[in-house]
Amino acid sequence: MPTYDYVCKKCDHAFEFFQSMKDDRLTACPLDDCDGEVKRLLGTGAGIIFKGSGFYETDYRSDSYKKAASADSSKSDTSSSKTEKKAEKPAASSTSSSTKSSSSSKSGTTT
Q1: Are strands 38-40 and 14-18 parallel, antiparallel or unpaired?
Q2: Rounded distance, CA 99 to CA 95, Å?
Q3: Which of 11, 29, 30, 73 has its CA 20 to 30 A from that of 55?
Q4: What is the DSSP letter of 81?
Q5: Rounded CA gap, 61 and 52, in Å?
Q6: pLDDT averaged over consecutive 10-residue blocks of the chain (111 residues)?
Q7: 13 vs 30: CA distance, rounded Å
Q8: What's the gap between Cα 74 and its chain centre?
Q9: pLDDT for the residue 59
Q10: Please, which residues have CB within 8 angstroms of residue 34's CB and are 6 or more apart in sequence?
Q11: Cβ-contact 58, 28 below 8 angstroms
Q12: Computed over its alpha carbons, how large is the radius of gyration of the chain?
């Protein structure tokens, strides 16, 4: 049941009243010494409270957006894997040259 805001047109008394949506609007001011008419004010409504899981930005995306996003991510994955492969080649050659130098130094000390 909602709480409605009212204001008296005669004495400007503002108050809240808790009533069902099916009930009729109030018409008379609740103050004893005032017999003015009241007006129901428009409220902003209640705030939205998200409880539970599933309230993420991506939960409500359209199918076309999801397809485009997955296509973009697969393109970036392939380009990043190419970059990683290029980076691996020089590292492997430097490792093999250091292995050769260590094996030659070992062979030099044993003979």
Answers
A1: unpaired
A2: 6
A3: 73
A4: H
A5: 19
A6: 90 92 92 93 74 63 78 71 54 49 50 51
A7: 9
A8: 24
A9: 62
A10: 8, 10, 11, 13
A11: no
A12: 38
State the DSSP string of 18-76.
Answer: E--TTSPPP-B-SSTT---BEEEPPP--PPP---SS---GGGG--HHHHHHHHHHHHHH
Structure tokens at 101: 């130098």
The number of C-alpha atoms within 13 Å of 86 and in the hemisphere containing its C-beta is 6
pTM above 0.70, yes or no: no
For residue 93 the two structure tokens come to: 């050659």
- Tell whether the torsion through CA atoms of 9, 14, 19 and 20 is positive or negative: positive
Instruction: At 14, list the tokens.
Output: 């503002």
